[in-house]
Task: structure prediction
Amino acid sequence: MTPSALKASLAVVLTLCIACAGCSRQPANTWQGYVEGEYLYLASSQAGQLTQLAVSRGQTVTENTPLFALEAQNETEAVAQANEQLRAARAQLADLGTGKRPSEVDVTRAQLVQAEADAARAATQYHRDEQQLRAGGIAQSQLDDSRANALSSAAHVRELQSQLAVARLPGRIEQIRAQQAQVDAAQAQLGQAQWKLDQKSIHAPHGGLVFDTMYRSGEWVPAGSPVVRMLPPENVKVRFFVPEAVVGSLAPGRRVSIHCNGCAADIPATLSFISDQAEYTPPVIYSNESRSKLVFMVEAQPQTADAPKLRPGQPVTVTLQ
Result:
C-alpha cells in the first residue's frame, strides 16, 4: 500500500471512530440506572410445621390471598378452652344477677308458711294460758313457757321472711364486680388465644409478585422465620446517579421516563427521593478538579400499573422530562 493510500485509510478509520464515539455519548439529561425492589418478608410470630403452602414462586396474588399455614392443633384447642371458660364466667355473672333459683325460693316460702302456722298456734296457746293462770288452773312457769314459745315462733317467722326477701335479691355489688372482672379476664384470654391461632395462617397484606418461597410443606418453621418473599408493585423503584452540577435542579415530583431493553415503550415515573450525600467520592483530597466525580443517588417511582414491567436488578436509562 502506498503512503497516500495508507493515509487515506487511517483518515477513514479515525472518522468512523469519532462518529461511533458521538453515537455512544448519552444526552446531558439521561443517566444509567437499575431497578430496585423492596421486598416483604412474610413470617408467623408462632413456630410450627408448614402444613400448607398456597402459592408458588413467580405467582401474582391479590390482597388477602392465603399464602401459607402452620400446624395449629394446640392453638385451636386453646381457643376452645378459652371459649368454655368465658361461657362459665358469664353464666356465674348472670346467676349473681338473678338471685336464687325458683325451686330454692319455693322451699323457703314453704318453710315460712309452716312457721307462720306454728307461730299462730303458739300465740293462741299463750293467750289461753294467760286465762288459765288468772283462773288458777296452771302454774306461772307454764305461762312463761308458753310466752317463750310464742316469741320464738314469731322470731322464726321473721327470719324466714328475711331469707325469702334476700333470695329474691341479686348478688352483692362486690360479688358482681368481682365476677365481672373474671368475665373480662376470660375475654382477654380468649382474645390472646384467637390471636395466636390467627398467626398460624398468613394472608397477603398487599397484592404483588411472590418472588420466592423459603420452606416446603412438611418442614418446621421457627417463629419469625420468613416463609414467603413478596414484591408489591408499589415497592418497585429505579435508582440512578446524577453529578453534583445537576442534583441541585432536581426535586421530588419531577417526571422522568424510563427506558429498558425489551420494553414496548418508555415507562413514565416520578422522582421520589434525592440523596443529600455524595457517593463514589474518589480517595483524593477534595479539589475543584474532583468535583465532577461526585454523584448523588436519585430514586424514581413508576406507576403501580407499570411496575410489573420492571425487574429488580434490570439496567435502565432514565431521562429527565
In short: The CA atoms of residues 35 and 312 lie 5 Å apart.
